[in-house]
Design a protein that fits this description.
By secondary structure, this protein is mainly alpha-helical. The protein is 52% helix and 12% strand. Strands 3-4-5 form a three-stranded parallel sheet, with helices on both faces. Strands 1-2 form a two-stranded parallel sheet. The longest helix is centred in the last third of the chain and has 20 residues. It is globular, with a radius of gyration of 17 Å.
């Protein structure tokens, strides 16, 4: 198993140097940031999101919608999407060992990982695709596409 880090953030250089210092730079791949990460989420073994803030909520939603097992800090939208152990893992952002334990569980238990993938897809279908909440992410997304289609038909 390798590590893929996507993004051009300020920690990229530090992380590359750290990987070299650990002697694992051949197992870590850095990709430039991009808008659509769906292909990464669909092929990833898991998404680990230890962020202490809520800046990455759309990332969590997109990963979940792609069926990617998520190991996330228990902040922001994560507890609204993830039921710990059922469709992902919620961890204390100040306890790194919780993240490693969750990752180890996914690696050691392929059947559990498969179940988590199915359950997160079902959760997203239930919470977002059939939601009557007019402010849900899915409804806002659908309304924006409906508006775009309407404008294109009018031209």
């Amino acid at each position: 198993i390798g590590l893929l880090i996507v993004g051009d953030g300020s920690y990229r250089g530090h992380l590359a140097r750290y990987a070299r210092s650990l002697g694992i730079s051949d197992q870590v791949v850095f990709e430039r940031g991009r808008e659509d990460l769906t292909s990464y989420f669909k092929t990833a073994y898991a998404l680990m999101m230890p962020a202490l803030n809520t800046d990455f909520e759309t990332t969590l939603e997109d990963a979940a919608a792609a069926g990617c097992p998520i190991i996330a800090a228990n902040v922001g939208i994560a507890p609204k999407i993830i039921a710990h152990g059922k469709n992902g893992y919620l961890c204390d952002p100040k306890v790194p060992s919780e993240f490693w334990a969750a990752a180890g569980n996914l690696i050691r238990n392929p059947a559990s990982r498969s179940s988590i993938k199915q359950n997160i897809l079902a959760t997203m279908q239930e919470k977002y695709m059939t939601s009557n909440d007019k402010d849900s992410h899915a409804h806002l997304f659908a309304r924006s596409w409906e508006a775009a289609i309407k404008v294109s038909r009018e031209k």
